[in-house]
Hints:
Elements (H helix, E strand, L loop, with lengths): L6 H9 L4 E5 L3 H10 L3 E4 L3 H4 L11 H14 L4 E5 L9 H15 L3 E5 L5 H9 L4 E6 L5 H4 L10 H15 L3 E5 L3 H10 L4 E4 L7 E5 H4 L17 H18 L11
Parallel strand pairs: 1-2, 1-8, 2-3, 3-4, 4-5, 5-6, 6-7, 7-8
Amino acid sequence: MVKKITVRTLFRKKKEGKKITMVSTYDYLSAKFCEEVGIDTILVGDSLGMVFKGEENTLNVSLEEIIYHTKAVRRGAPTRFVIADMPFGSYQISKEKAVENAIRVIKESGADAVKLEGGEEVLPIVEHLSTIGIAVVGHLGFTPQKIKLFGSAKVVGRNSERIRLVEEAKKLEKAGAIMLVLEATPKDVAKEVAESLKIPVIGIGAGSEVDGQVLVFHDLVGLVEDIKPKFVKRFLNGSKLFKEALKQYKEEVEKGIFPSEEHTYE
Ligand code: KIV
């Protein structure tokens, strides 16, 4: 029987210097692939707003959508550590609202943890959620929910931002965060953060000297064609393969080749 991945498994991996793998995805089948190949943790990221729904940014994702997609992922990956992203607006209004929404996500979706973006401003929420038993993953560096403030995606942590980033990471750990995602951060800053914390630090565009990596499933299998940030590696030319299959299907239907006897009932 495959052992369930828990917070302890992830802490142990960091302690033993073993890299942690994380994939951000939103559906049953891709989660099942992650389960089968032994990806440690799955994030049901609010990137689903862009990748799944085709929106311009992540801001329009609802709590219901996160719960819906997390349930599907949980079914596909029963033993992986599943993290549900708290969408924009679900934890910024008040501590009470944040707690109510995080409890809903945990109870209804089957997630092991929730993730929320930000530093100083989310510390009271992280602290409270941890106190009541909810595992919280932090997210620093470029935080897509602040896209309107940033103007566009950017590297965060250079020069004067460095001290603040490292301090906020330490404060998140102190507040009870069990893990930290660092996005678009210079590699030496990310290394300093990972070395300063006991909790695992997972990078995306943060270099290799952190405790693990996360990529979006659709990026890593090469299904996303129009955007390719520097940190994305396509491990497959998925869009080419999918389009070849679709073209062949279209051609065979149009020419009456499909369905053949093999795909037909007597
Ligand atoms: O929403 C998401 O998928 C994420 C990862 C890219 C870290 O936050």
